[in-house]
Amino acid sequence: MQSLDIPKTSPSQQLTQFSRILVVEDEELIREMVVLSLQQEGCEVSIATDGRTASNLLQNAESNQSEFPYDLIVLDLMLPQINGLDICRWLRYQGSTIPVLILSAKASETDRVLGLEVGADDYITKPFSMPEFVARCRALLRRQRFSSQFQSPVLQYQDLTLFPQQCRVTIRGEEISLSPKEFKLLELFIGSPGRVWSREQLIEQVWGPDFLGDTKTVDVHIRWLREKLEPDPCNPSYIVTVRGFGYRFG
Ligand code: CA
Predict the structure, then answer these.
(1) Domains of the chain (ranges plus CATH)?
(2) Could you write out the DSSP letters of every residue in 205-243?
(3) What distance in angstroms lies between residue 168's CA and the mean position of ligand 1's atoms?
(4) 216 C-alpha vs ligand 1 centroid, how far in Å?
(5) If you measure from the C-alpha of residue 72 to the centroid of ligand 1, how many angstroms do you get, rounded to a whole number?
(6) If the chain, 250 residues long, is cut into consecutive pieces of 10 residues, what is the mean pLDDT of each piece?
């Protein structure tokens, strides 16, 4: 009799297999159970036993500019040195959309709401069952995998960082406030450093083909953008005028 060709891993295991998960938990017993059940699912697990170590791991990942090394963070709230809420808040402030599952001994509604308000994606109260924990991890990984297919990457040029998903821009780590048109202009520029754009091309891309105003609009918006970005707006280093053609970024 011919055997059926059934994959050895179930669809849900294929989802968790090779997922990179950071577990931040100071209680040894819980940490070991969590790590073991994730490893049984085929996950690659990194561990931090206090808030400082977790924050160092995440900051290194951030400054390496490489692909973010975790697909999910399992985060305890009450941690030595830096608490879980501050870690989560910091991650979101950096523009990271990595899913966060909070593990907490606190069961009250306000703590749950606070956890979700600082940008956690889900919340599980101790004591919890391992099957429930794994099911929640799977759900977050599935959501992450689905949404990352539609995610625009964070754009970086020198000390400027643009987060398309959050419509945020930081310069040397400090947030600057841009109007929607200024944001779209900058997004276009930063996506193609060195490219020369004519005023007509910028109108077409940012204002759309139906725009009826004249190209002076572009100059006005560039001036505003320079005032917000450039250390010396009269001597621009980011948005450079290319005489007779238009503008170039970088
Ligand atoms: Ca704890």
Answers:
(1) 11-148 (3.40.50.2300), 155-249 (1.10.10.10)
(2) III-TT--S-THHHHHHHHHHHHHH-SSTTS-SSEEEET
(3) 33
(4) 59
(5) 18
(6) 55 71 96 96 94 90 62 94 93 84 80 79 92 94 73 83 85 89 93 93 88 89 94 92 94
